[in-house]
Design brief:
Elements: H1 29-40, H2 50-54, H3 57-68, H4 80-90, E1 96-99, H5 106-118, E2 123-126, H6 133-146, H7 154-158, H8 187-199, E3 214-217, E4 221-225, H9 231-234, H10 241-246, E5 255-260, H11 267-272, E6 275-279
Helix pairs in contact: 4-5, 5-6
Amino acid sequence: MFGRNGRGRPMLKVFWEEKWQYGEVETTWWGDGALESFLDRGVDQESASEWTVYGTTTRGSQSLQDIFGENGIFNNPKPVELVKHILRLASDKSSIILDSFAGSGTTAHAVLSMNKEDGGNRKFILVEMEDYADRITAERVRRVIRGVPNAKDEALREGLGGSFSYFELGQVIDPEGLLDAEHLPSYEELARYVFYTATGEQFDLDKIDRSRWYIGSTSKYDIYLVYEPDEERLRTLALTIDLAESLGSTGPGRKRLVFAPACYLSEDYLREYRIEFAQLPYEIYRRRG
């Protein structure tokens, strides 16, 4: 074959059924990409073996043993090398990586490791429904971030850096019927919902002070929820001057974000008390037949 224009470098044309005669071995983008990624980073070809590139479940178990200081903590964990190779093939330095079956947390470990290696800004979302989610999955991420003193890997000893937030799945809250009088959520459940919806930040149940309706703070706001899980009581709750004065002091340059059924303050008073009002979506105020 000399190419379409007849001036190409001569190449032997081999039909599929004849390939075996020439001793050719089939290759894949998976294998080629793995080897090339190691060669690009200065690893010699002899050292860049299949085991170096992909790792093994034995290596995955050894990594967990280094992190937790005990053996057999999780059965057949994926090796970090395998997940890192998958990410090299299918993502870039700014990708968001989702693992819906997080297991021992290898995906997060791999993402943090790659970010440390190349200065990337990859993010991860892990989902795990088993009861070891906090004890193993999240705890592994905590430890590799801050460093594991006795780890064999130098980067792991120093800590991979980064941060993450840990959330537990709560009861389902339907925004369309959020406060249906027949299914009023508890104060804590609604506080968790409105805080995260408004800020996107992790909610801390211990910060709640119901005596002044306080549910937490962010860098810009102190956040309040004026709410009781009682239909008759809800009809009387509103943001008033007395309530605004009872919220307490706030730092300079900060604002108060107040969720309540109604607001009886004018815009002037809201500015004076540095309050932004957010009305809750009450279905209970609709007439029922």
